[in-house]
């Protein structure tokens, strides 16, 4: 048990652990604000994985071949898995799974703005894998060194799986751009629609990101939003060139001096609007998640009843013997 | 490992351990919720071994895990802290003694 007298010492030990880049584990003492920040961050991340199944999920039944269907299915299943690893990590901080789900459905916890955009054509499936999963990788690789052990370990697992997601997307686009003129047009159209929202995935600019500094000190965030956005652009431009698509940014050019690409500013007012609930698909995403949760209620109840009856029968058998 | 107990009304939490291949120990990989142990096993297979990561799975209710305090400074581990003579490197032996 922690008494108030212990707290300065416990806090000093916590700060020392984090500063030395060692991991904080579930039953360690931690400041309440650290716990709350992590629960919010991990829950938001988990919700994003779960809601993120929807844009691509629509295409599973309409994939053009059995190969593409099997790949897409596996990819969407992985996203469900990522959500579950992360809910598990949040629960090690004392968060309750049902409560997290409720907060998502009631709009009290957020998920990534990117999943509020529609996947209009099958080329979108490729572009989501390439750009959206690509941006997610940029965000997640540094989190493998998050100061919170269970989150860091979940991220290691997630990152291993994400590289399949990005590659299948790129391969899909590679195939399409080597197809007909109409297919090439579909790919370019999808790139035009997803490029800016993908850049917004890194969040508001550093100057407008008030909690970043503390999160960096706690090592639950390892690089600033703008740095990660820049990395993503630098990684992606050569891939776009190789694919033969144009990224819809007239300001995009190589800066010899910086050794990095210059690029335009995303519409951060749009980002705020979409996060605020007014994106193209916000209502649809939550309505669908709510319906899935409610439709699944009888399964959860039946499973619990079955488990209870079996446990009772096992007890009864023990007494009879 | 989790600090939380099973939630009333919901499915209890299970800890999952996977043996990566024959010859290795089971290693803790994470947790999940399930109605009972049998369901936890199936879910663990779907969640933690989608890519042949395991040949054997253990699940145990999180509430059944008894754990020491997590901190490496915990006095619980003090008895092993000062017994350097339990390590082979403690013993100085002439360099020319073979096979030791
Ligand atoms: Fe994911
Ligand atoms: Fe992914």
UniProtKB/TrEMBL annotation, chain A:
Single GO term (MF): phenylacetyl-CoA 1,2-epoxidase activity
Pfam families hit by this protein: PaaA_PaaC (PF05138)
Record GO biological process: phenylacetate catabolic process
GO cellular component terms attached to this protein's record: cytosol
PANTHER family: 1,2-PHENYLACETYL-COA EPOXIDASE, SUBUNIT A, PHENYLACETIC ACID DEGRADATION PROTEIN PAA
Protein name (database record): Ring-1,2-phenylacetyl-CoA epoxidase subunit PaaA
UniProtKB/TrEMBL annotation, chain B:
InterPro entries assigned: PaaB, PaaB_sf
Domain of life: Bacteria
Cited Pfam families: PaaB
Protein name in the entry: Ring-1,2-phenylacetyl-CoA epoxidase subunit PaaB
């Amino acid at each position: 048990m922690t008494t108030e007298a212990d707290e300065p010492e416990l806090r000093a030990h916590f700060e020392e652990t984090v500063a030395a880049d060692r991991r904080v584990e579930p039953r360690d003492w931690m400041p309440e604000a650290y716990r709350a920040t992590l629960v919010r961050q991990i829950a938001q991340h988990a919700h994003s994985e779960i809601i993120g199944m929807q844009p691509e999920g629509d295409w599973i039944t309409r994939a053009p071949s059995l190969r593409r269907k099997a790949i897409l299915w596996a990819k969407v299943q992985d996203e469900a898995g990522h959500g579950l690893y992360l809910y598990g990590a949040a629960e090690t901080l004392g968060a309750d799974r049902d409560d997290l789900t409720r907060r998502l459905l009631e709009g009290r916890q957020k998920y990534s703005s990117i999943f509020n955009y529609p996947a209009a054509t099958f080329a979108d499936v490729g572009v989501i894998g390439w750009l959206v999963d690509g941006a997610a990788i940029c965000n997640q690789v540094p989190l493998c060194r998050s100061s919170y052990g269970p989150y860091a370990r979940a991220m290691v697992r997630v990152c291993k799986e994400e590289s399949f997601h990005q590659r299948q997307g790129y391969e899909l686009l590679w195939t399409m751009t080597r197809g007909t003129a109409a297919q090439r047009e579909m790919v370019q159209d999808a790139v035009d629609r997803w490029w800016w929202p993908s850049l917004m995935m890194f969040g508001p600019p550093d100057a407008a990101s008030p909690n970043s500094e503390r999160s960096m000190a706690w090592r639950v965030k390892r690089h600033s939003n703008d740095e990660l956005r820049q990395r993503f652009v630098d990684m992606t431009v050569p891939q776009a060139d190789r694919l033969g698509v144009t990224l819809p940014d007239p300001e995009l050019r190589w800066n010899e001096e910086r050794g990095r690409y210059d690029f335009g500013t995303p519409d951060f007012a749009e980002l705020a609007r979409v996060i605020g609930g007014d994106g193209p698909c916000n209502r649809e995403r939550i309505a669908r998640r709510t319906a899935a949760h409610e439709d699944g209620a009888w399964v959860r109840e039946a499973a619990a009843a079955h488990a209870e009856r079996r446990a009772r029968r096992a007890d009864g058998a023990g007494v009879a013997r | 490992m989790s600090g939380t107990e099973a939630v009333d009304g919901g499915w209890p939490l299970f800890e999952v351990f996977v043996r990566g291949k024959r010859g290795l120990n089971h290693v803790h990989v994470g947790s999940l919720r399930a109605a009972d142990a049998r369901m936890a096993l199936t879910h663990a297979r779907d969640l933690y071994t989608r890519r042949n990561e395991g040949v054997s799975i253990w699940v145990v209710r999180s509430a059944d895990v008894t754990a020491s305090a997590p901190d490496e400074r915990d006095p619980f581990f003090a008895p092993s802290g000062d017994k350097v003579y339990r390590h082979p490197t403690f013993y100085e032996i002439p360099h020319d003694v073979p096979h030791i």
